[in-house]
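Reopening: Glutamate racemase still failing for me.
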Amino acid sequence: MKNSLPQAPGPIGVFDSGYGGLTILNKIREALPQYDYIYLGDNARSPYGSRSFEIVYKFTLEAVDKLFEMGCHLVILACNTASAKALRSIQTNDLPDIDPNRRVLGVIRPTVECIGSITESRHIGVLATAGTIKSESYPLEIQKLFPDIRVNGVACPMWVPLVENNESQEEGADYFIQKYINQLLQKDPEIDTVILGCTHYPLLLPKIRQYMPQPIRIVSQGEYVAESLKEYLNRHPEMDARCTKKGGCLFYTTEAEEKFSESASIFLNQPISVKRISIEKT
Ligand code: DGL
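Support: Ran it again with your exact input. Result attached.
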């Protein structure tokens, strides 16, 4: 165990490669406004979706270490790519050494748990990063809980760059939004429910809605992750006691502060102040 880690109660850490985790943070803060939060976006190294398993694991572990050093006892990987590629290794191999009492949770399981009661056709689609699709995490997890559901996925490698570069509402975005939706529906025309399996994608929702045929339900993860965190804290009073409750939220990024605060303020609909930090370990 790392003796240097702060032992006093601290904020809940929320991590993503960039802006996407803000869609999760928003819903978590709506459901659990009394807690303190630290948001960390590794925007300087985003996107993670096209990176190797080893690199996503290394970057995610660096972020988790940083959030623990900043006083968090509980960290949410508000990133599907990190949840798919790094969560299991961090939980099994790293946490026992770092501090067996700290916890790291992901976003895939809470999303999968909700899906059984949403789809009627039992055909669902997943739109996600190349890394998440290649990991097969969604079909594998869905298979465990709902073996009757058929899952098809399509990687959308251009969507995260559209968000990170503030192009999500521009005309150029339309081509790529339509392209991946069409690819998915060609794979399985019986799909009645589509999971946005990347936390950046709800930031593209107006255009996704425009190109998704009307009867298809679009599942954004935020509210399911928030609900699942609420239940987790109820089930684990010992962790709840280690989370401070003053209703505050601090924002950190690995890129230029001005760019993050400008974009994040738009996504969150309120001005925020942000600090730039380095999380890279040599
Ligand atoms: N927002 C992340 C996810 O949910 C990753 C995006 C990326 O960096 O590619 O997968």
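The first strand starts at residue 12 and ends at 16. If you still see a failure, please send the error message rather than a screenshot.
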